[in-house]
Amino acid sequence: MKRMPLFTKCLILFVLLWLFLKFVIGGIISVPLPSSLIAMYLWLIILAILVHVSVEDDRFREFLRPIKETLADESKKVRRTALFVLIPLVMLGFTFSKVSTRADPPAALRTAHPAPPADLTYRDKVIGTSQEVENPFRHLEKDDAEAFRVHVENGRRVYYQNCFFCHGDNLDGKGHFAHGFQPLPANFQDPGIIPNFQESFLFWRISKGGPELPPAATPWDSAMPVWENYLTEEEIWEVILFLSEYTGYRPRTSGEGAH
Amino acid sequence: MMSLTRRFLPANSRKRSYAVLVLLIAYALLLVLPAFAQQDVGDTEYRPFPKIGSRNAAWIAAQLHLLFGSFILGVPMFAVVIEFVGMRTKDLRYDRMAQEFIKLCMAAFSTTALLGGVLVFVLMWCYPKVMNKMTGIFGPTMIFYVFLFFGETFTLYLYSYAWDKMQNRKGWHLFLGVLLNIFGTAIMFVSNSWLTYQTSPSGIDEETGNFIGTTWEAVNNFTWMPINIHRFIGNIAFGGSIVAAYAAFRFLVATSREDREHYDWMGYTGNFIALCGLIPLPFAGYWLGREIYQFNQTMGINMMGSLFSWLFIIQAVMIGVLFIGANYYLWSGMGRIEGAEKYARYRPYMAAIIAVCVAIWMTPRSLIATPQEVAAMGGRYHPLVGLFGLMTAKNTVVNLIILTTFLSFLFYRRLGKTPIVGWAKIGNIAIAIIFGFAVIAIVSIGVAGFRVVTDFRINTLTPIQVFIALFVMISVTIIDLIMYRRAMVSGTINWGKMTDRSQYVLILLAITFTSLMGLMGYARSGLRENWHIFGVMPDTSPDSFTPRLSDAVNIIAVIMVIFFALVGFIFWIGLLGEKKEGNRSTH
Amino acid sequence: MKTLIRIICLVLMIVSFIAYIARASAFPIASANLLPWSLWFFLFAFANILLWQRVMKLLSFSLLVIWFYAFTASIVPETSTAKLDLSSIERTPDAFVEAGEAIFKGKGKCLTCHTLDPSAPKGRCPDLTGIGTRAATRKPGMTAKEYFIESAYEPEKFLVPGYGKIMPPVWKAPISLSNLEIETVIAFLQSQGGEVDLTPFEPPVDTGSAAVGVEVLPPILTGDPDRGKNVFVNGAKCVACHNVAGLEKPIDQTLDEGVEVVAAPELTDIAALNSLRYIEESILKPNAEIVSGYGSASVRVGGAAVQGTLVSQDSEQMVLRIKAPDGSETERTILFSELEPEPIEELVNLKEKGYFWVQATPADATAPISGELVEEDEESITLKVGDETQTISKSDVKVQVTVTTFDDDEPIVGELVSETDDEVILNVDGAERTIDQFDVDTMESSRAFGKRLAVTSPMPSNFPQLLSVADMNDLLAFLTTLTGEAAGETAAAAEGAEAAEPVPAE
After folding, report:
1. Would B102 be classed as within a structural domain?
2. In a domain, B504, yes or no
3. Cα-to-chain-centroid distance, residue B178
4. Distance (Å, whole) CA A95 – CA A98
5. How many Cα atoms within 13 Å fall on the side-chain side of residue C326?
6. C369 — contact with chain A (CB < 8 Å)?
7. Which domains, ranges and CATH numbers included, belong to chain A?
8. Residue B10: inside a domain
9. CB A33 within 8 Å of CB B385
10. Whole-angstrom Cα distance, residue C200 to residue C397?
């Protein structure tokens, strides 16, 4: 039996990895990956394969042999002709797909973490700097467990009266209205949400909602209402306590080195 | 002054006198312009720069000046170390290489000064009011700066032209080199104070926003030291990588076997120094980031999470390229040593580990996705891959990449040698166990990082991961050193036996490194957003906005092209000069 | 020959690099898209790397690396804080569509609710794919451009079936698009399948009055005015009685049985005239404050109950407007002396119930005392009898009981002596009479008799119980929007729905 050329082997490996990303990770194990990410991974796979085959001269020659044969060998004329027809076609398709007008919105990107203003405010009243303001009820967790529970319960009430329509009864962002929103409501069960933010940050996001996102953090469309118009300062702090108690994630206390 | 320089320098070529002329013009600009800026500028806040706009003009001039500055600061550091190594090992190759670089440095020096003058001119012209304010605060340091610049110039000229004459007084010559580096570093520290003050001003009266502090207070602001350290280490790495790129260029155009051998070795040495600088660089960067966070949280979050977060994904791509490239170069280098097959079989696995780690490192937290894809994911964050976007995953893979790179280096070191100590086998097993446990520990800490409180993760888990990685590197190096101290040489290094591809990788590394500097420089400067001096002096010019990332990177690309064109030109001049010397010596 | 090809390739590579960096229009198909030049550059750089040796190869490689990073950055979706400067925009379709797209996706925040993708899940607002062609057919008699203008400035005028009135007028805060910006967005929407028409137009509303960029902090109200409006019209059917300019009264058949249509105060500008507190009270306690001329009075005259709207009253008489079953209305003057005393069951809050004349029998008296009700507190009432006043303790009043039994046809009337589970003992004209509870059919007791003029709101007094808290909040939110200013627009909208031409706002 003829040994399989290195180039073919690499091609098979590439296709296998692509299938793995597309259908195993994006189907069997978890939900589908966005195409931008798959493209990035595929480029990386190509790079890794090239690194492996090109480190040594001998192997690189072997890898390139089928390509050179296709380009120069008389016996590979059919393959060559097919290639020369195919490449312009692929390029044409690529250009067309990029140039043609499409009605669908472009792949959007959302800033993971918009920057809060220097001063934290509630209805124009300055509470303090975003860096230093702490949840006024947080200390009760140690000092007075009873009072703390009361505040958490208040937070629960506030949540289920106002927030759960969108953020869901399990705090997973799957409320009744969630499907109607273009950026989906935040999923508080995600380990990347609550632990990454200080309580002052959560306060800012809740009190100011979508309309007061800083221009620097665009595109960050959000349908979140300006809750300071509806909730009192204490209620917002209480609902933050509830978010952290329910999910079991603690907001961070220092603002250093977040990514 | 002309006569002074003439007397000092052997005026043997017209080229050199041009360089001196350029320098003098630069000095004149430096001295005159601050005085000019002190004048009453009236209500003129901004003057437009034709065609490209004030911001772009200042940006290009500043970044080019900075890159050349890094070059003339980084290369002498490199040269002094190499000269010292050469003195100790009595290996003339080192001395030759160090001298070659100082010559290049000379050519780059006047360009740097000229670009500095252009920068000052552009700033004075376009931003009179800002410069007026800055000179008001930093006036004394600017005079100091000019004197340092004189010092730097004369030491560099002495160091360079006295190289051959002082061969017998190497100690004194080295002292000159050290002095040169002290001047250079001091110059960098002084100019750093100006730009860090813009980012994190100190000595400000909270009420009025006026500066009420002393000059020293303004200099010693929040981000000054972190930037000094970051740039100092960065310059070492940058100098190394430029040297390696120069060597690669010379390797590729070399015709003789000796040249190939020399430049292969030079590329290897340069790359080694670049890597030595590269590994501590992230820690210095982390410190800088932390200081920025502490100075102003909004700024910190803008940097890492918001406005500039995508810039850090580009940075991740570049760092990925740096590590893959560095490993590729080490693996290619195994080809020059006999008996490399022994370790070659591990290579695919190492490549796979690095590829997977880089993939995780590059995976952004919030993914670029169309609305359908978002709906299919059930949210903006992918339930599995979205976790890679979190800091704990990134810290884990960076440690793994560093360890893998270290392993590549370990293998490279061992090539061509066979240990003769009796416990060699046990030693190898011990090293394998250390690596195994370290990887398991780092990965499990990383996984645990998803569930713990963020503060605990930042303050405890992440440092533990770093310490594990450091422990592995130190302990394995010690074991390895003892094991191979009197090793039997079983294969020789064939310098010059290197693929052309590996030389292209060296050039890739240099460009990547330079682009990374351009990108991070933009981030540092852009963080001020619409402020000239953060929180004190707002930018009201038409340019007071943050450009789109692609626009910013386009400007950086233009800077890169100009920089490498100029550097290429300097290399080429160096090549010409050598040929002339070569011709002369044969006559 | 080979050298010539090499040089051509080199030049083309440099040209395509510059074109890419300078963002030149794509070649050969002109478009704002950057990628085709990137493709050209990539091909030429690759060709150069293959064709050249040494220096030029190196140069091509370096350029390729530099380009690669620039390209990587360009595939990331853009973020910029640059304000779109439209001051020098050219009046060309391309420029307008480009600027409009940026505003549509950025400042206008349109994509928060709208989609541009027919396969996307249904959003809160209609999908706008192909809106350029569809716009002309949305509203009969309106061109696409006119429809776009109306939708941008007065989005509530026409609602796509199935979607609510949730789009804010984009020229108002917080979105605050300028007229020029709205023009560009219209151009962009027209480009979605239609012809771009750049004829300038006058905005249909006076946008100068909008406090651009200033957001007035609304009161803490949890309700949604739109849903409140629905409660107003369909849920609580307030609109049956209250008039609000622009809201059509439903035809009578649609009302539930038993809902009586009476005149009620106009609410078009209620929020401008009264405080939120007042509106809230009026809903929760309809009788707390009755607008003069809208109270409903019910009196007994000549053995019959008379009900009508109190038109006026003085110390002697009152005028009631009475609605006959056939719908005709007559006014009737009634003297207070004509009124018949009604039995009073409990001596509580007499004044509030409208009693002005009371007759009661104290326990120690034989004859009842009657007179004008002067004062009342928890324990006693004070009556003006003749010229003097007399105070009667509430607990001391003889209770008159009228019992009908299953045996007798005539009711038994007497003072109550005692009442147990088994029997009722009455004093009938001095003689005690015991009645078995088992025999009692009905038993009415009264402590006194009184004349009253009860003026109540025709609004059901249990109104608060008819609505859920959420409905109530929504209703309140809706009422606070009734400042009279929007009336013109909504009125026009109502008429505009019938007439094809939109009626300009007042």
Report:
1. yes
2. no
3. 20
4. 5
5. 2
6. no
7. 6-96 (no CATH), 119-247 (1.10.760)
8. yes
9. yes
10. 84
pTM of the model: 0.69
Report the alpha-carbon distance of residue A165 to residue B71 in Å, rounded.
Answer: 59
DSSP strand pairing (C296-301 vs B531-533): unpaired
Q: Into how many domains does chain B fold? A: 1
The residue ranking higher by pLDDT, C432 or B4, is C432
Q: How far apart are CA B320 and CA B305, in angstroms?
A: 20
Average pLDDT over residues A22-38: 86
Structure tokens at A156: 């629960």
Q: Measured between alpha carbons, how far is C50 from C161 in angstroms, rounded to an integer?
A: 62
**Residue C17: helix, strand or coil by DSSP?**
helix
The rounded distance, in Å, linking the Cα atoms of A164 and A167 is 5
Considering only residues A102 and C463, tell me which one the structure prediction assigns the higher pLDDT.
C463
What's the confidence (pLDDT) of residue B546?
Answer: 79
Query: Given the structure tokens 């190499």, which residue do they identify?
Result: B82
Residue B433 tokens, joined: 């166990």
- Write out the residues of chain A at the interface with chain C, using a CB-CB cutoff of 8 A: 36, 91, 94-95, 98-99, 103-109, 111, 123-124, 162, 179-183, 210-211, 215-216, 218-219, 221-223, 229-230
Q: What is the pLDDT of residues A201-243, one digit of tens each?
A: 899 989 888 777 776 655 556 778 888 877 888 899 999 999 9
- The candidate with the shortest Cα–Cα distance to B381, out of C446, C420, A109, is A109
Q: Distance between CA atoms of C11 and C14, rounded to whole angstroms?
A: 5
For chain B, what is the largest distance between any 2 Cα atoms, rounded to a whole number of angstroms? Answer: 82
Find where tokens 């692929």 sit.
Answer: A90
Q: Does A131 touch chain B (CB under 8 A)?
A: yes
Residues in chain B closer than 8 A to C67 (CB atoms): 557
How much is the average pLDDT of B120-147? 85
Strands (E), B493-541: 531-533, 537-538
Tokens of C190: 């027209």
Asked if residue B53 is part of any domain, the answer here is yes
Q: Does the pLDDT value for residue B499 go beyond 90? A: no
Q: Which residues pair with C442 in a beta bridge?
A: C404
The pLDDT tens digits for B508-549 are 999 999 999 999 889 888 888 778 888 788 887 777 777 878
CB contacts, 8 Å: A107 with chain B? 368-370, 373
Residue C65 has pLDDT above 90, yes or no: yes
Distance CA A250, CA A242 (A): 11
Domain of residue B83, residue span: 1-221
- For residue C101, the surrounding DSSP H or E stretch is helix C93-105
C134 — contact with chain A (CB < 8 Å)? no
**Does residue C383 contact residue C392 with C-beta atoms inside 8 Å?**
yes
Percent of chain C whose pLDDT exceeds 90: 6
C319 DSSP β-pair partners: C312, C333
Closest CB to C130: pick one of A103, A180, A215.
Answer: A103
